Amino acid sequence: MSAPHTAPTRASSARAPKLDAVAAGAIDVARAALVDEVGEKQVGEHLGARAEGDRVVTHLFAAAMPGYRGWHWSVTVARALRQKKITVDEVVLLPGEDAIVSPVWTPYKDRVRSGDMNPGDLLPPEENDPRLAPAWFVGDDAVDAEVDPTSVRPIADEVGLGRVEVLSLEGRDAAAQRWYDGSRGPDTLLTQQAPGRCRTCGFMVWLSPPLGSLFGVCANAMANDDGQVVSFDHGCGAHSEARVKRQTGPGPAPVHDTVTVDDVSDVEPV
How far is CA 167 from the centre of its chain? Predict the structure, then answer.
């Protein structure tokens, strides 16, 4: 009885490439190609070789250039089956583990932060921005308050009674999370030492739901957050119920100064 046929596993089918002896020994060929490309002064010692595939080997040379500490030259060579002649495939400069490299590129749109806008700057939303949704899809209070509920919303938009787009559910949730995690949320030193929370403050103007279930706008001209969105559990020392504890009872007894000498020579008699 023959053994049942089994499919090869991933580990058995993906074998590591074997270092080709002929290509690995072509150090002089790799160095000559590198020197011809970048010059003798920029090429350091040979650091080793690694197999890239069948009869394909990469030789590594130190980069002897100022400012490129930890970088190395990579020269890949190969040979055809049953051939001894070595062919140079590519020469590149690569960073090593200790190399100083620039940070990962961040697109401009991802680098802009709140407060970066200057007069005249334009920052249009991306096409199909997930923070926005068509007004007719999620509703628009500005339209609902001005037109007959039985009318067709696109007509209201056409005559300028509503907005083309409004905040989507995703955009609303992102804003709420950003506000709550920011400096006007509950996790601030100002809040920890406040006599009360914004929800009970008479200076807070509540927003409309659903954001109004957690946020309001501070209307206290003396508060740091005046005109800003604050969470209900935020707080500061300018709370409407804040009171200064006044001392009760007699004050400390007067002290007779027996140390300081008063100059009375220039005092005119009354």
Answer: 22
Residues contacting residue 102 through CB under 8 Å, at least 6 positions apart: none
Q: Is a pLDDT exceeding 50 seen at residue 3?
A: no
Phi (first) and psi of residue 165, to 5 degrees: -130, 150
Helix (H) or strand (E) holding 45, with range, is strand 43-53
Of the candidates 42, 96, 45, the residue with the CA atom closest to the CA atom of residue 70: 96
- Over residues 58-98, the pLDDT tens digits come to 999 999 998 888 999 999 999 998 888 999 999 999 998 88
Instruction: Kindly report, residue by residue over 106-144, the tens digit of the pLDDT.
Output: 887 788 887 787 878 777 777 888 888 877 665 555 445
Q: Does residue 192 register a pLDDT over 50?
A: yes
3-state secondary structure the chain: CCCCCCCCCHHHHCCCCCCCHHHHCCHHHHHHHHHHHHCHHHEEEEEEEEEEECCEEEEEEEECCCCCCCEEEEEEEECCCCCCCCEEEEEEEEECCCCCCCCCCCCHHHHCCCCCCCCCCCCCCCCCCCCEEEHHHHCCHHHHCCCCCCCCHHHHHHCCCCCCEEECHHHHHHHHHHHHHCCCCCCCHHHHCCCCCHHHCCCEEECCCCHHHCEEEECCCCCCCCCCEEECCCCCCCCCCCCCCCCCCCCCCCCCCCCCCCCCCCCCCC
With vertex at residue 75, the alpha carbon angle to CA 79 and CA 26, rounded to the nearest 5 degrees, is 50
pLDDT level of residue 99 (50, 70, 90 thresholds): confident
Give the C-alpha separation, 270 to 249, whole Å.
37
State the Cα–Cα distance between residues 113 and 130, nearest whole angstrom: 18
Instruction: Answer positive or negative: Cα dihedral of 124, 129, 130, 136.
Output: positive
